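agent> call fold_tool(seq_1)
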Amino acid sequence: MKYFSGLLFLALIVQSCSQEESPQVSPSSELSQSQEVIPQTQINELIFKSLQETGDFKWEEQSDLLIWSAMMHADSILTIGYKPSMESQPNSRIGLEKVTDPQWQAAAQKIVQTIEETLDRNQSPKYRLADENALIHPDLPFLEVKFTDLAMIQTLRSMGEVRYIEPRSYEFDYTLLQGGDSDARILSDAGCENSPGNVPTSDFTIISPSAKSSWNYEDMGIDQAWAQSTGAGITVGVIDTGLSPDQPMLNGLFNSGESSGRQVLRFGTHKTGWWFWKRYDGPDDQCGHGTAMSGVIASPRNTVGNAVGVAYNSNLISVRGTSDVIVNSGNEKDGVAEALVLLGNRSDVRIISMSIGDVFSNSKVADAVRYAYNRGKLIFAAAGTSTSFTNWVGVIFPANMPETVAVTGVKEGSGYQRCDTCHSGSQVEFTVVMERSGSNNKPLTTANFGNDPATVGGSSVATATTSGIAALVWSKNPNWTRDQVLQRMRESSDLFPNKSSQYGYGNLNAAAAVSGVY
């Protein structure tokens, strides 16, 4: 049986990354300070140590030299978060105040002016400012600059207008997460398989008009919830790898069978290329993960024997923000940030589902999460999926942010046993039953093509399932706020009012959440 397990954090970035940013500075030929560059292996070891000791890695805690060295090993571009100098809580204002407001604009322009003056004074070689080629972001308070001057790092960090600085495109060596054993590597795109499979008849139920209801729907009370709500009137935004144009259930037949009166929209915010030559590469799924997640949430209650989604009458907006499940390249971080802004700006979107992430934080994407959250969106994010080699990794980014709701997967049966590849931890809010205890079979979803379902595992499917359940609750109570929906989901979960240190409030019960009877 074929399935993919979502966020596979033992990654090797392969030839596909040739489309990503290439280093634009040769340390050996252009850096007067090349002898000071910290080796990439040493930077990776520091990141690995931080992940082991704290569960995260933050650039803001690193030295000027380390940040500069990471830039030089990537594309020599620095991301700079800014704020009005007197603003004490800028993160709470992202999305509520426009970056074109005078005080924010003045902060950005002061940083740009300081960079120009400093680099000119130091006669630094080969630098470009964001407004030459482009980036003072139009919605988020960050700008990006390309330079090679180490002294510039210290200057920026001393400014009251600077919130953070981070190398834009540095990529961590994920093989360190499993001891550097190349034989155990799992490619970053290994979560991309989503082909039809031979699903045992014991793993689904045929429901009218002729759709397949996944085996775990009964465990989660989803089939019972359908008598009261099917997600009508609620729009769910999915930020992932896009939507397959070859799957009719998520295109021309989105309204078919017992699903009607709704719409599916497709956008692409991911770009390929580097710096100002980057181009959007469209909304089509070139991986399969995004199609699978969208299918779990909103695939129609169809007539052809395909899998049915949890909220089969909800609206769906698919945004291709990343090329695979790990948001680790500069272009992927840009794409996901832009996707969050796109969905944050849409008044029809209430729920955002993100079955993607990375093992450590990125401030640009975090800004975009806050942007969407501050504009009222309920954001679900995967707690993380890997293999037994990295089960020590806790809840990953952005699921570890307070603005998101972290979800992980567990096996069926009494007690709580996380799925073979799922992460858990104190930030987890909910769990979803998504792995059979005997066979380890996974839930059904819609494949990239055809009418035969695929299967999907990991905290990815748990997150998509939770997003669908939230749509059922909100559809039943359309005048509720985000906090009311979330509280109802908590109160109707298995462990409430207690909260486990690893599994949050435990397994969701869709029927109880929709009805209010627990």
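agent> call fold_tool(seq_2)
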Amino acid sequence: MKFQRYIQNHQNQITLASAILIAIGFAGKYLLNSIIVYDWAFILASIIAAVPIMIHAYQSLRVKVISIELLVSIAVVGAFIIGEYNESAIVTFLFLFGSYLEQRTLSKTRQSIKSLTQMAPETAILLHDDGAQEEVDIEDVDEGDHIMVKTGASVPVDGNIVSGSGYLDESVITGESKAVAKTTGDSVYSGSILGNGTLTVEATKVGEDTTFGKIIELVEDAQDAKSPAESFIDKFAQYYTPAVLIIAVLVYIFTRDFPTAITVLVLGCPGALVIGAPVSNVAGIGNGAKRGILLKGGAVMDDFAKVDTFVFDKTGTLTLGNTAVSAVKDYADDSNEALALVARAERLSDHPLGKAITDYATHEKVSFEQLDVAGNDTVKGQGLTATIDGHHVLVGNLKMMNANHVALTDAQHSDLTDVQHTGSSVVMVAVDGALKLILGVSDTIRPGIKEQLQALRDHGAKHLVMLTGDNKITAQYVAEQIGLDEVHAELLPEEKVDYIKKFKDQGRHVAFVGDGINDSPAIATAQIGIAMGSGTDVAIETSDVVLMQSSFEALVHAYSLSKKTVINTKENIAIAIGVVIFLLIGLILGFIYMASGMFVHEASILVVIFNAMRLIGYGKMPTQAQKAATQKTSLT
């Protein structure tokens, strides 16, 4: 056991020694004209290089697996029997050198995943009740403990800020590099980096239960989840490798050509075929992880690539989930004065639409806080009245306008109807008995979503559908604005599930995109469930794909990445099979021999790895300017 461990730990040194001995052998023959030096150098090179290969072959046989190493081992023994020491030395060196390059290149494909685990905090500054600070291992932190986070440090827990403020880099969670302002009462995620300030955080989740811990676990598990292509290749290899042994035996029986039979063993090694699919999936998963996209394994990648129908929830998915002023009809001589009066009036109300109006006034740089309020009254079912800066202000619905004898012109009636048809909540403002404003307040459609939905179509989506519990007018308006193919409104969660089952029965491959909380039944029913959520437990655990940024740019990238990964996998399989066919034809025609065949074989492994590595850089990361443009919400 110690010998095996020693050999495995020093395999790179053995590879180097083998290369040096091969160089000495060629130097002995062509510089010193010494066959003895030539033969013994190659014999020693063959022996030391064959040891780690034969150990791997033996370990595989113990678990009843006929491995590539066994084929090479038999080929080396055969080469010794026929005295082809140079062939055996070169074959074993190329095999070990190929393994070395394979490990180096594979490590690059896993780098983004490794970087996640390296970012996981290991210690925390624990605050005791008496104010004392103690640095402890992260395993010793319990829920409810207070943790201090200093400038430049990583937040070690999920929790809520109880004191302090600062800017946090949450890119390891969301893939979004823009710093996020946090203050008392805000939640923070483990793995976030505090750019400035000092925070005291009350731990709500620790260790593997944190959002960051779950991300690491999911990404690591995803590497082991096999795609259909990988599963097929695993089964294929179980039969293919013994078949190569049988073919080599049959070649010898019918031709009595031992060197050719041994060469068949070398050329038949399915290395590129075995490595091609896994390395593509690992590279694709790593690409997603860098962008805050969790794709749960090769099988999910394969299913996602087949999706032709995207079904969306509305609130929080197609829209931002927060109300804002979406329409303004202005009849005032001084629109800023009318807006200031209604904003000051809404400060007196706790109605949900009030904040949208005051936010709009603030956005328009209208000053209203200093206005004097002499009196106000709330009228149930209608709105409110107030006396502000000497003006009698009415804020409410059409019923309030009629009750206070505020007359509307035909044009104003037409405007009111137009705003109502958008599905917006309507707020009418009258000042001193005359209508001055009609405001439409609605959930904000995600900026740039129409273009992103078209991008989904460009990548292969054929049907874009909305399923929502909202009213039909609002749902239809949103669908028309962003260009959906179908819309079904006023649905209960179980009715959404029924629609998804109906689509599946029609032969569609369905992905449901929701917030990962109240849409869990629909997410579970679709072939692919996609959660556009910022790290909720339900989103992470129940969905096949989690978009930590909650952005449609990430959705488009995930969809195109899955398709690119599946294509890349097929390319690798084609390359591997093509190389085997080429080698066998070359053997039959007599221009491929053991050493040259082994060189081509090892080169093919590197080709499929380098091909897969192209996935690591697939899709340009958006610039800060692009992100700012996407996040900007226009108010009209």
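agent> summarizing second result for user.
The longest strand covers residues 319-330. The CA atoms of residues 284 and 561 lie 7 Å apart.
agent> awaiting next instruction.
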